[in-house]
Structure formats: structure tokens, C-alpha cells
Design goal:
Strand order of the largest sheet: 18-17-23-14-15-22-19-20
Largest sheet: 8 strands, antiparallel
CATH architecture of the largest domain: 3-Layer(aba) Sandwich
CATH class of the largest domain: Alpha Beta
Shape: globular
Strand content: 25-35%
Radius of gyration: 29 Å
Number of domains: 5
Helix content: 25-40%
Distance between the termini: 70 Å
CATH superfamily of the largest domain: P-loop containing nucleotide triphosphate hydrolases
Length: 693
Amino acid sequence: MNIAKYRNIGIIAHIDAGKTTLTERILFYTGLSHKIGEVHEGAATMDWMEQEQERGITITSAATTCFWKLDDHDYRINIIDTPGHVDFTIEVERSLRVLDGAIGVFCAVGGVEPQSETVWRQANKYKVPRIAFVNKMDRPGANFYNVLKSIKEKLKIKAIPIQIPYYKNDEFIGIIDLIKEKLILWNNENYGSEYTYHNIPETELNTFLTYKNNMLESLAETSEELMEEFLETLTLSETKINNAIRTCTIKNEILVVLCGTAFKNKGVQLLLDAIIKYLPSPEDIINEKGFTLDKVTNLEAESFIALAFKITSDPFVGTLTYIRVYTGCLNIGDVIYNSTKEQKERISRLLLMHANTREEVKSIKPGDIVAVVGLKDTSTGDTLCALNKKVVLEKILFPESVISIAIEPYTKTDQEKMILGLRKLANEDPSLKISTDPESSQTIISGMGELHLEIIVDRLKREYGVSTKTGAPRVKYRETITKSIEHEGKYIKQSGGRGQYGHVVLKVEPMNPGDGFIFENKIVGGSIPKEFIPAVKKGILEKIQHGVLAGYPMVDIKVILLNGSFHEVDSSEMAFKNAASRAFKEATIKAHLILLEPIMLINVTTPNDYLGEIIGDLNKKRGIIQDVMDIISGKDIKAKVPLSEMFGYSTIIRSISQGRASYSMELDSYSPVPEVNLNTILEKKNMKTDETA
């Protein structure tokens, strides 16, 4: 199939907007599945993990391929269904990195919800063209026009509806197509597989004409040629409308909005048509870091370049590496180059995935999204390329983990099995971190939230047969300084035989949030020989990683090596490492060490009745209310709250609102811990403030 007939798309949305239900209908109408799998019955094809089926949520991104015919041409659609819960945002991040387009799904009742905004920002980061589908139009309280307003206001995009809903006796039964100027009705008796075109009822003509004219005006504004034609004729042809929509969608200048109800089988076929008409093929991508696609005339003839975006463990075939192919072809048995790791890899098998089932293929080409068997050194975000075309693509950016728990097996004999399982899970999920507490020697796992870690513990039991017990959640604090200080450190040891001598003069300076760590060498005149400079940096880095105040990693610090001295015989790498470590520790203590805590951006959606009590509770948690907005279902509260105050909030908000309010949170920033809370944190770490004063 010609690559122009490929569409690589993702489905992104807030939790419960109906992403997976929509995907199930797409699989049904394209003939890939012959029975509709429902999420609420635990039978959705794309939610294949046991935890997904039990909880009715998507946890891991699932890939599949289907085919759709439009205007007598066959098209191939590679789909990735992504999670809506913020704890699994890494799945959305890595999927968007390799996709050419996306469908933003919005609930017709809830509109633009908190996680909708998060995934929209992620898609903006990777400049992914999108179309919107307002789902659940059959629900009580559904309001297409309110959602349209919400999209424009919250997502700051030029949203243009190309359909409007049609109701009869307050029941959603069809769609008015603004481009074809027809009413479309679906046959309810065959799962909506058949639909028919009708004239627009007179009662709907005014609304139709208003939105048709708005659509034409909005599209005419995108080019002088269209504007001239529109001003002369007051209309545009169907072909010109579709071409303008496609051009502007690919440039991310507009967002066309469609509507329907996936669960009631209305509107999905028209969405499939829109995917083909408006979202880009792999040929339409302009720039991919490392090479420029618009200069390539034949993608298949180019050298092989792909990005590994996901790793999973399969009990039958071992490690599966999901890759997106940008240029060139790949065959079973080929040797390729991992330019990120600078390692050669051999291809054992190539698999086309349909959720968790596999279809073996002998070769792949540009635009394909497949799983590869046989890669030993490849991780998420690595570039794979031909041996003669060594390029490195832009890496996938992973969010920082903010919460950790201690974990241990019920039986000591399972310790090794637990560590092995955790390592495999961390290889699959870059937002999962494993470490060892230096004081207690406990194994610590860190992740994006309580649900994320809960799922990890559950997977350890189900997939690796290890039952574990866990400690209370811990916050991942950071340490930093607030003042600039110059300080020297010496390490001198004489105990017979060769001694040890290292002497350094350092300056430590605070930096802006997010700047990390910078080491600058300003030694002139050889007061410290060049071969000892890496040892100085190593001594500082060891302290940076383990902290000075309370054992937490240090951030946003610049260290300048100003001066020092050495001994011809007694100086060594170890001596300079120890001298630098000592100097850095003493300097940071003088530079006013502070503890930083993660501040979460909280979104609470609640009926009006519980607004006061929820705000009062957030205030008690040291929360700062940012905004309270009117939404269809009540109020949307935005607040910034320290993560340490949010443990167990699911239970609290359920109790306050009788189960009617919901919330989501994501990391916003790090902020200094107030003095009143600092002592409590240090005491839990078995430390005292006066030790660092």
C-alpha cells in the first residue's frame, strides 16, 4: 500500500470520555472485530490487561491496525488507544511522540476536563495535528455548543464544527453535516452499520445556516484565494472546504469538531472518513529531528530510521520493542544500529500487534508501527537506524516521579524474584524508578501517583508471583541552597607510607528552578592537575545525589572549582574526591540549605452543593485556590497543594461529596517546605535541624 494511504493516529482524552469505547466501534466498523467489546463488561479488545478489565480504565497504550475504504480507495489506520488517568501520562507522552495525528475525545456533558488539558499540552509539545470528537451526545445534560465554547476558551484553538447534533423529542438521533448539507440518521437495528442521508428539517435550517456560514468564514480567513472566492460567491465547494481543512489541520491552525455517541453507534463512520480526509499521512510530516522528511522523495528508498517508543515483556516471545518506522525498510534477520546506545542489534522477528495478539510479518516499511523481537540493548526513546546512516532522533521526555513507597516480599526467598520483576516493569515503564534506601536497605519504588504504584504492586503479584507488603507513601523531596558561598576543603592523611593529599576551593551558587546541576572548572595555572578534575566532580555528584540536609537529591546548584593545591607524591583521585565532597557539604550548609516539596496542580470537579466544604478542606491542606469555574456539572476548582497533603484524598473527597466529586492532579512545581513542617520531616529521617544549622 502507498504510504500516502497510511494514517498513524492516537486517541487522547480525559478519563471516562469514551476513548476505548470509540476504539472498539472503529474496530467493529472496519471489520477487524465482529463483536463489539464493551468497557463496562470488561470485554474491550484494547483493554486487554486484567487490571484494565477489572477497573474499566486504560492503563497501558495498546496498538492495532485496521483498514477503511473512502472514495474507492483503501486506507490503513494504525491506532494507539492511550490512558486518560494522569498517573499513566507516560503512555500518552511516548505515543504522541511517534504519531502523525490524534483524535481528541471530549465528553458532551463534562466538556474540556483537567486531563483533556494535560494531553492537549503534550500533543502541542510534539505538534501533533488533531481533530475533535464530542462523544456521549446521548447522555442527559449533553450540550455540544457548551463543549465547543469550552474547547475554544480552555484550549485556545480555532475550533470549527463541521457537524451539529440533531435531536428529536430530546433524544439524540442524528447529525447534520455542514459540508454535505444533509441530515444523517443511523439504523439502530444493526449496531449503526448503515446510515442514510436526508434533507435538513425546516426546524433546524436557521441553526444549520448559522454554523455553515461560520464554518465558511473561518476557512476563508485561512487563505486569500478562499477569501476572494467566498466574498464573490458567499460559498465554497465541498472539495475546497475539505482541502482547506486538511491543509490547516496539518499546520495545527484549526481544530475541526465532529460529534456522536460511540456507545449508541452514531457518528463513528464519519469520524473514520475525517481521519482519512484531514489527518496527515507519514509523507506529510515536515521535520523530524535528525533528518528532514520534506526533502525525501521516496521514503522506502532511504536508509532505515526508526524510534523505539515502548518496551513490553511477553510470556511467550520475551521482550517486545515497539518501533515507529520513519524511513527505509527492515527485514527479519537484518542487523541495525542503535545510535543512542552505540550498539548493533539483530532483528529476530517482526510482529504486527492487535492489542495483545500478534501477526508475524517478514518486512516493514515507512509509517509502520510494529513490535520487534530480538533487541537486547534497546530502551524506550532509542533511535534505531541503518549501519550507514547514524542519526539520533529527538528523545522522548519522561516526567519526574513524585511519590515513593518501600516494598518487600512476604517471604525473603522471593526477594530476588521481586527485584527481577521490578526491573522488568521499570524497563517497560520509564516513569517507574527503583532504588535502595541507604539507611534501612529497603527497596524503594517511585512513580507518578498512588494508583500507578498500586498497579505495579498488583502486576508483581499477577505476572511474577510475588506477594509484597508496602510502606506508607513517601514524598520525593529535593534539596537546594539560597545563597552563594565560597569554601575550601582538604583531605590529608599521613599514617606511614604514602599519604593522601587533596585540596580544593569551591564556590556554590543557587540557580533558577529546573536548571539542575552545573559544574564549572576555573582552574588556571595547574594548581590542580587536569587528571584530578573528574575526581573533584565525582565527589560533588555523590553528595548531590544523596543530599546534605535530609538525604534527598539536590537540585539547581552551580559549583565552580576556583583553586586548590596538590602534592607531587601524596595526591590521588580518591584524595581529591574526598576533599571536594567535604568542601561541597560544608559550603552548602553555609549557603542556607532548604528542602523543596512537590506542589501539585489539583483539579476538582464537584456539584455546587459540596463546593464550600471541598475548598475548606483544600485550605486546611495548605492549598492555594487558583480558580473556580462554572461547568455543566457544577464547579471546576483549580488549586495548588503540596503532595504530602494529598495522600488518601480519594477517600476524603468521596466522603465529602458522597461519591459525586472527582479529582486529578499533576506535578506543577517544587516549593520550599515551611519551617514548621521541616522539623517533622527531618525527625522522620532521624535527623535534627541543628545538625545542619
